[in-house]
Amino acid sequence: MNNKPPKLAADLSLRNTEPGQIASHGSEALRHYLQAATSDNTRKAYRSAIRQFEKWGGRLPTDRDTVVRYLLARAESLNSRTLDLHLTAIGQWHYYQGIVDPVKDPLVRKTMEGIRRTHGQPKRKAKALRLEHIAQMVNYLRHLPDSKKKHRDMAMLLTGFFGAFRRSELVAIQVSDLLWEPEGLIIRLPRSKTDQQATGLARALPFGAASSCCPAKAVKIWLESADIASGPLFRPVNRWDQVQEKHLNPGAINDLLKALGDACRFDFVPDLSSHSIRRGLSTSAARERVDFELIKKQGGWKNDATVWEYIEEGQQLSNNASLVLMEKLDVLIDKDG
Length: 337
Prior knowledge:
Elements: H1 19-22, H2 28-36, H3 40-56, H4 64-74, H5 80-96, H6 106-119, H7 131-142, H8 148-162, H9 167-172, E1 178-181, E2 184-189, E3 201-206, H10 215-226, H11 251-263, H12 275-287, H13 292-299, H14 304-315, H15 321-332
Antiparallel strand pairs: 1-2, 2-3
């Protein structure tokens, strides 16, 4: 697919257009850049929110009272964070149409604040996979009959975990993004979720001493078994163990983790998602006292606060004030009394 935009300078019809008329002029180049300003996932989320508002009975443009009625009607059935998203979508629609935004009205904002206080719930987090969980999954895969799917799943699990990849990044990897070095594998992606300006990201996966848990070696085995020389790295494999040409769907990462979780008889399978491997790498590294900067670098996190949150989660039981106090109390207790 050709994503190259048309040359704006070549659009002669725009040269004498007044600034206020450009948005309605219909320039192909302008539409391209306006669309590129918002990520595909955000655009999909906004479209879904607008559809739900219209399904309820709302129409765009809308007014303050209609928005308030919508909030009251959905306050108990939708999570407050979902309602916040719906308000953002409605507000953005009005903003870009140059119409007064009813979402900014004090009554709408006050109503939403009351809903958050009344119905707000902590954000449900994906279960962070620990090293022992990954070990169980690897052992399960190792004992399966030899197949292309087995090699793909092993490479995908280990690469996703040790590279702390988001699922969108994992399925976007192309063979051309792989840079093999004597010390291991470097994966360079031109874009990621938090890198919308396409400055690129890199994940380094050194060769491990043990081949059973080395992501770089697992990727080599997968490429050789599937005879892949170019195109997407991770692809669908059908029931006849035939490798497809297209990219793997991002949802397949969740499906794989849940299937492995079921096979390993984990009791937290409903809480497993693709984010379980990304959070798992950070919290597992924190338990092993890996340096803050190394954790941040491997996961490509921009925000230090996010990394510290993962570190605190991983060390919340081992790096705990109560441990010191319990040791002191144990000394003070009269055990002969």
